[in-house]
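[job 0412] stage=fold_complex status=start
inputs:
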Amino acid sequence: MPLSLYLNVAVVGILTGLVYGLMALGLSVIFGVVRVVNFAHGEMMTIAMYIAVTLFAAFHLDPLLMLVPIAAVMFAFGYLLQKGLINRFVTRPEHTQFLLLIAIAIIIVNVLLIVFGPDAKTVQVAYAFDSFQIGPLIVDATKAYAGLASIVVASGLFAFFRFTTIGTAIRACADNYTGALVVGLDVKHLYALTFGIGAACVGAAGVMLLLIVDVTPSLGPSYTLLAFVIVITGGLGSMPGALVGGVLIGLTEAMAGLLFTPSAKSMFSFAILVLVLLLRPQGIMGKRAA
Amino acid sequence: MIARLTDGLSGRALALLALLFAAALVAPLFAGDYLLTVLILIFYFAYTGQAWNIMMGFCGQLSLGHALYVGLGAYTAAGLFVHYGIGPWLGLLVAAPLAGLAGAFVGYLAFRFRVGGVYFAILTIAVAEFARVGFDHLAWVNGSSGLFLPVKRYSGNDLWLLRGQPVMFYYILLAATVAALIGCRALLTSRIGYFWLAIREDEEAARAAGIDTFRYKMLAVVISAAMTSFAGVIYAFYYNNLFPEQVFHISRSIEIILGPFVGGVGTLFGPILGAAVLTGLAETLTSTLAAIGVDIPGAKQVFYGVCLLAVIVGAPEGIWPWLAQRLGLKGRGS
Amino acid sequence: MSALLSVDGISKRFRGLVAVDRLAFDVPEGGIYAVIGPNGAGKTTLFNMIAGVYAPDGGAITFAGKRIDGLTPDRICRRGIGRTFQIVRPFPALTVEDNVIVGALLHRRHVRDARARAHEVLRKLDLYDKREQRASSLTLPERKRLEVARALATEPKLLLLDEVMAGLRPTETDRMVAILRTLNAETGLTILLIEHVMRAVMALASQILVLHHGAPIAQGRPADVVRDPAVIHSYLGAEEV
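[job 0412] stage=fold_complex status=done
writing structure:
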């Protein structure tokens, strides 16, 4: 096979991987701070995707333009979910939290199924068939925009946590729960804020992903699993790790799809997960638990 | 031996058990076709719930990929039958060790490398998903096109080849559930059971008390896996068609854990009670909707989700402990 | 009396921090040996090395004539060393009796034999009357006694007690001391304890080792050790004696 084919597939993998990375970033942020394993992560993403689909079908609004409002809606959803329900479980045993979110995930998937039906839905944007040509590379406009938007959002998130007061406060909670309480931080509120941010992240990623794939209700669980693979590979609790993991998995999937059969590409993601769990459970960029 | 099994159970509890068993024995005489299929489902989930409960409820390891063992059991027995005419009971002799081996594999990976808690759960999901996609590409079982068992019109019930009326499957699953119940009770009151409970409660303290936790965790996983594969064999011969997409799907794994969680993880009767309540209510919901002419695919799943949510929020120990308290049945080790 | 436990030049570093520095001492069989010292002196690290939680970076630990350094905690228990934890770790959902049965099952195949042994041990620790209660419902002193009971049920030759008096009021401390004294006198059980509560140490120990910054600063009979100026300076304080 010609080199240009490999190159093109690799680029697609990287761009998709950036979107995956953004999705996983949301999961990482939630786990890193609230210490809750969000098993409904992919499902929340599909909510955002369906909102975008509906808005597009009704008003022909470009998903990328709708990015900010949809992210805001998801933020509110996440905030309320955490504050109203999940917060009580923060101190409960791990598997209880896990199951709580599984229950939420099941409900989301099937409500979406009931409302929207099982058929795949998509958005046909005006630039759906445009592409950029850079030497031997031919890059779809949709993927290029999605990848770019992911980088922008991720950078914004990093800046938020680094430079703003609230961001620092949230990081303080993550580092030391009791310490944060002692200093007078409203931890419950900050937790809810963080969950909201994670939800907004995954919502944004969903909107971008819509440019690349079609949405069905069963997409949720597959992407939840993918998000876990990415986050564990990259390092649970490490934000750069989530992006690195995302790109790595996106690349692996794309190359596996090329070299083997496309339908088996998820097997490679799982194989990577198993390897990481065994050999380097803290992930590529994670810190080894003391 | 019987004494040890019944020690701690009050006379009341035993009487109730006997009553329920008698009712279950004669149920097919009074139940219509539809109700019979519901009862079959109940005992199927009661049995698989019991098998799963050994790993989680007794030993504290959360498996969210138990569909792997159902699938292995189903496909092994079905494959042997379709290709070589080997009956399911013989097929089970191959399927159960195979599933046990798969469990040992998962267990070894996890326990050798200290993967626990949520990470372990994710590992189990990943392995099941791996199998799902893998079997889609496995020619011996027809991959994603599905494996179909030959079904001829039989006048009677062939217990050896498991060809026959639903009522035969009902009694098999009833027997399996009862056997599982007795088996679990025996295990719980034995040395192995005590060590499992210790590991569940506090693994490090268990080690300090001299327990080889790796060995006993492996035992729990292997037993649980092998037991579950039996359900897979029944599944294959009852439905007569297998698709990797369905059999290994994570929804199957979640369905298995619902009964124990709703009923009470770690208790003996929890999985059975949970299966009965959940399946009973779910089927009532479906038939009610059908009766008023409404067909909502996904309604049952939403119901399951809401039930799970309600239990986690309101009664995290499950329904059984509460019920047992009310009925005055609380003995040791129920 | 020969040495049951022989610690020979063991060290442990944690990333640049030397927790234990070439420590060596012998615990005579049938004796009660106490290890004291300020917080951070390396006492728990020492214990954890003996109990198998960490392997020492160097040196050797010998028990009943055989090397045990580097063995896993469960193997160490099977060799005959029982331990308690500084922060008690009972099996919360199990009854008091069942907690101890778990320990007794180490050397007894059958549950009924283990139960008989458990009852014996519970009587010695004054917990027999509470045997049907859930471990999570016990008070702290009771939980401490449960920890000891569970470890005792494994039929150890050496019992490691990690600050077992912490959090106990004087009367409860005396009770525990009495129990331990009786066990030592009646069964010849060797005891190695980490302790801050000097009242208990003076009442129990036949020998004391004082640690400071991972190294020994005094070793010997209690009367001598508490008068040692280095010990007074680093740990006891002038008024204590």
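[job 0412] summary: The mean pLDDT of chain C is 90.
[job 0412] exit 0
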